[in-house]
Amino acid sequence: MPDRTPADIEADIISRRRELAATLDEIAVRVHPRTMAGDAKAKAAAAVDRTVGRAYVAANRAVADVRSQFVDEEGSPRLERVIPVAVVAVAVVGGLFALSARRHRR
After folding, report:
1. Please, what's the b/e burial string for 60-85 (b: 16 or more CB within 10 A of its CB; e: otherwise)?
2. End-to-end alpha-carbon separation of the chain, Å?
3. Is 92 a domain residue?
4. 1 is a domain residue
5. Cα–Cα distance between 22 and 69 in angstroms, integer?
6. For 37-69, what is each residue's pLDDT tens digit?
7. Mean pLDDT in the chain?
8. What is the CA 85 to chain-centroid distance, rounded?
9. What pTM does this model have?
10. Is the pLDDT of residue 84 over 90?
């Protein structure tokens, strides 16, 4: 290592102090309560986004599965499945309507 002059050593010390000051400032920002709260909030938002995305995909898949039960590959309704479901739905709605009318008469 070549001989260093006192000025070189002093310049090196000043440079190191600046680097340390920058590092300490960065650490102070990272551990500041607002920064930590913001990081936690961002992580929670990301987790919610992932969960909502997964739920959306699952719901989309479920709808596609149900739709495939009532519509064929060409997009035409499968009447052998649609008609019985429609009859049951009409019967349930009619029954609920009859019960509601019966309650209102009392």
Report:
1. eeeeeeeeeeeeeeeeeeeeeeeeee
2. 105
3. yes
4. no
5. 64
6. 999 999 999 999 999 999 999 999 999 999 999
7. 92
8. 35
9. 0.49
10. yes
DSSP 8-state secondary structure symbol assigned to residue 76: -
Look at the chain and count its residues: 106
Alpha helices in 1-106 (DSSP H): 6-31, 33-70, 79-105
Residue 25 tokens read as 């400032």
- Count of domains in the chain? 1
3-class state of residue 74 by DSSP: coil
- H or E stretch including 72? none
Range of the domain at 94: 78-106
- Asked if residue 1 has pLDDT above 80, the reply is no
Is 60 within a domain? no
What was the pLDDT predicted at 104?
A: 80
